[in-house]
From TrEMBL:
SMART domains: HTH_MERR. It comes from Massilia terrae. It holds the Pfam family MerR. PROSITE patterns: HTH_MERR_1 (PS00552), HTH_MERR_2 (PS50937). The lineage of its organism: Bacteria, Pseudomonadati, Pseudomonadota, Betaproteobacteria, Burkholderiales. It comes from the Bacteria. Residues 91-118 form a coiled coil. NCBIfam families: CueR. PANTHER family: HEAVY METAL-DEPENDENT TRANSCRIPTIONAL REGULATOR HI_0293-RELATED (PTHR30204:SF94), REDOX-CYCLING DRUG-SENSING TRANSCRIPTIONAL ACTIVATOR SOXR (PTHR30204). It is found in: Cytoplasm. Keywords: Coiled coil, Cytoplasm, DNA-binding, Transcription, Transcription regulation. Residues 10-79 form the HTH merR-type domain. The keyword Endoplasmic reticulum does not apply. This is Cu(I)-responsive transcriptional regulator.
Amino acid sequence: MSCVQESIRDFNIGEAAKASGVSAKMIRHYESIGLIGEARRTESNYRRYNRQDVQVLQFIHRGRALGFSLDQIRDLLALWKDKQRSSSDVRALAQRHIDELNQKIAELQSMRGTLERLAASCHGDDRSECPILEDLAAP
């Protein structure tokens, strides 16, 4: 298939899913919440996607892989489509996400430290006493 044919080619939902890395179920979900536009339909009511639709799905897939929320991705998509945008707006959104990730990392490190202390205090033998369970059951 030539490049021109590929650029105007339509994809069914399975092909769009494979090309974008987004499952067909999630494509339907993104459509239902308005993250992506409604798909064009064939006379048989099958969804059809063009190359640009697949590119948007790839954008969403990459954003999700970086941990952006759906609302953040919605904002990023709006910025991506706005050719008059300021890159400072994009950077600010990314920085807020970095701050959120750093907070989550700190929370996870704290949980890991607590679990490491509890696991170290557990005898791990035939005794029924277990500091891990006692800590979980504490008021």
